From TrEMBL:
<keyword id="KW-0560">Oxidoreductase</keyword>
<keyword id="KW-0274">FAD</keyword>
<keyword id="KW-0521">NADP</keyword>
<dbReference type="InterPro" id="IPR050775">
    <property type="entry name" value="FAD-binding_Monooxygenases"/>
</dbReference>
<protein>
    <recommendedName>
        <fullName>FAD/NAD(P)-binding domain-containing protein</fullName>
    </recommendedName>
</protein>
<keyword id="KW-0285">Flavoprotein</keyword>
<dbReference type="Pfam" id="PF13738">
    <property type="entry name" value="Pyr_redox_3"/>
</dbReference>
<dbReference type="GO" id="GO:0016491">
    <property type="term" value="F:oxidoreductase activity"/>
</dbReference>
<dbReference type="InterPro" id="IPR036188">
    <property type="entry name" value="FAD/NAD-bd_sf"/>
</dbReference>
């Protein structure tokens, strides 16, 4: 098959890939975007499980530059469910005439940097071979599913479903078990509870969750958002989280117990996990005593909501409130239903999966028709390590990341010229659409500078190390380090924990990358190759190049 040449190949047509394709087209580049799914949408194409919903308010789970579109494109609830988000992304693709630049059902299998040509060669499952000057990977944070290492898992004779591959299936009158109770588990169980015959939650590490505040929005509310759109996003870009919630500095222990509970109660009633964690007090993520006050409050709400003391006790986390904050649409309430039960795996672990269901350590077998795995993802690098990406001197990304995934500013790796990642390791921990936008804007600036210099661009190794060191220092003193979560890769058995995000906040990340651009990209080398006839030594084949610091 003939080689397909383009200026830039974007891999992935989710939120990041769509925006990056649009931005590079605006630079006048010939861009091809490939997507392994049969539709655009990224994670919102794959994650079709019941109850799949964004935990960001509707007017913030979109592109910030799409102001006019917000006024005309319908949104009726405070949070968007998966079909609505997928429909929105398709709408953006069509509105900006991007579909002709996107090739569906195409999966990147290998990418190799060609030093003399200063191009990437990308091989795909279809047999297509692309040659591109720039390779931008938008493979997604939540793309590679994590399957639990439980003996006998494949011996189950019923329906075994991972939430990332939800089939068209009728579960009414079925006995359903769910392993996993993070954001996905909470959403899928809340949605399934009133529809199935029986629902069993297998919980090893219960998590804190607060109400989302989901519900219809009024016309007046939409008018307020449209009228104040610029001011809303001005505050978002100045914030740490990007969730559009107030971020107070008030110490938790600066107020008395009565006032503290009143504040927590107000936040609970307003809804949203990030609001609960950041809008009442400023030290829940750094002060153990303060965090414990939030834990005690949520424990009290569990006791208040769940009538069965056994179930309530099993739902109470013993860790600090120190993971990405969850929110729900009635999660704790489902455990008041007669058809919903919970197995506390801290007391009775799973021994194995058998053909008829789940066998516990005491040899009790929980009979099931369907077993749902809500066990999350191999976050960030899982999406990359299943592809062979080979940079300078034949060094692979797997080799570069042998001690943990790293990247300068979350977007670029030393030794991989003209290659960028959207939502790569050590990118901003914030509202994902805003974090993605900030990274795409930075990547676009890098490419624009390389174009003007007629050179390739590559991150400096020492600057990549310095960035990772900074990200590591930013976790010091954070209560988030006390829990084993996907934020540090500890949800994957056998993986060495390491920092995956930049925790200084969205506004700090935007400022850091703006400073990099304004200073002339000091963390990168721009390299021009000599004419090939002069640049290759006849005897050794070694490359000779002119390296310019721009």
């Amino acid at each position: 098959m003939a080689e397909i040449r383009c200026d830039a190949l974007v891999v992935g047509a989710g939120i990041g890939g769509i925006y990056q394709t649009l931005k590079l087209r605006a630079l006048g580049l010939r861009v091809v975007c490939i997507e392994c799914a049969p539709e655009v949408g990224g994670t919102w194409y794959w994650n079709r499980y019941p109850g799949a919903m964004s935990d960001t308010e509707s007017y913030l789970y979109r592109y910030s530059w799409d102001k006019d579109d917000l006024q005309t494109y319908p949104w009726d609830t405070h949070y968007l469910y998966q079909p609505e988000i997928l429909k929105y992304l398709n709408h953006v693709v069509d509105r900006h005439d991007l579909r002709k630049h996107i090739r569906l059902n195409v999966t990147m299998e290998a990418a190799t940097w060609q030093e003399q040509e200063q191009r990437w060669t990308i091989k795909c499952n279809t047999g297509d071979v692309f040659s591109a000057r720039y390779l931008v990977n938008a493979l997604g944070i939540l793309s590679k599913p994590n399957y639990p290492n439980i003996p006998g898992l494949q011996s189950f004779r019923g329906d075994l479903i991972h939430t990332t591959s939800w089939p068209q299936i009728d579960l009414s009158n079925k006995r359903v078990g769910v392993i996993g109770n993070g954001s996905t588990g909470v959403q899928v169980m809340t949605a399934l509870a009133p529809k199935v015959k029986n629902l069993i939650s297998f919980q090893r590490s219960p998590q804190y969750s607060v109400p989302s505040g989901q519900g219809p929005v009024t016309r007046e509310y939409r008018d307020w958002v449209n009228k104040n759109y610029d001011a809303i996003y001005e505050n978002v870009w100045k914030s740490k989280t990007g969730f559009g919630v107030p971020e107070l500095d008030r110490p938790t222990m600066s107020v008395g117990p009565e006032e503290r509970r009143k504040i927590f109660e107000q936040l609970w009633n307003q809804g949203n996990g990030f609001r609960f964690m950041f809008s009442g007090f400023g030290d829940l993520t750094t002060n153990v005593q303060a965090n414990q006050e939030a834990c005690k409050f949520i424990h009290s709400k569990i006791d208040e909501i769940v009538r069965d003391p056994r179930k309530a006790q099993a739902l109470k986390p013993t860790e600090l409130y120190a993971r990405r904050p969850l929110c729900d649409t009635g999660y704790y309430q489902i455990f008041n239903r007669d058809n919903v039960d919970i197995i506390n795996l801290r007391e009775t672990p799973i021994k194995e999966i058998v053909s008829t269901g789940v066998k516990l350590q005491d040899d009790t077998v929980i009979a099931l028709d369907t077993l749902v795995l809500a066990t999350g993802f191999d976050v960030i690098e899982g999406s990359y390590l299943r592809v062979t990406i080979q940079g300078q001197d034949g060094r692979t990304l797997q080799e570069h990341w042998k001690d943990g995934a790293t990247a300068f500013a979350g977007v670029a790796c030393a030794g991989f010229p003209n290659m960028f990642m959207i939502s790569g390791p050590q990118g901003p921990f914030a509202n994902f659409p805003c974090a993605i936008e900030s990274e795409v804007n930075f990547i676009t600036s890098c490419i624009e500078r390389a174009e003007k210099a007629s050179a390739y661009i590559v991150a400096k190794a020492e600057c990549e190390r310095q960035w990772v060191d900074l990200c590591t220092r930013l976790t010091e003193g954070s209560v988030f380090t006390t829990t084993k979560s996907w934020i540090f890769g500890q949800n994957i058995e056998g993986k060495r924990p390491h920092v995956k995000f930049y925790f200084a906040g969205l506004s700090a990340y935007v400022a850091e990358t703006k400073q990099e651009v304004d200073a002339g990209f000091p963390s990168f080398d721009f390299v021009k190759a000599n004419d090939l006839e002069k640049g290759v030594e006849a005897n050794t084949g070694s490359r000779v190049m002119i390296q310019e610091k721009l």
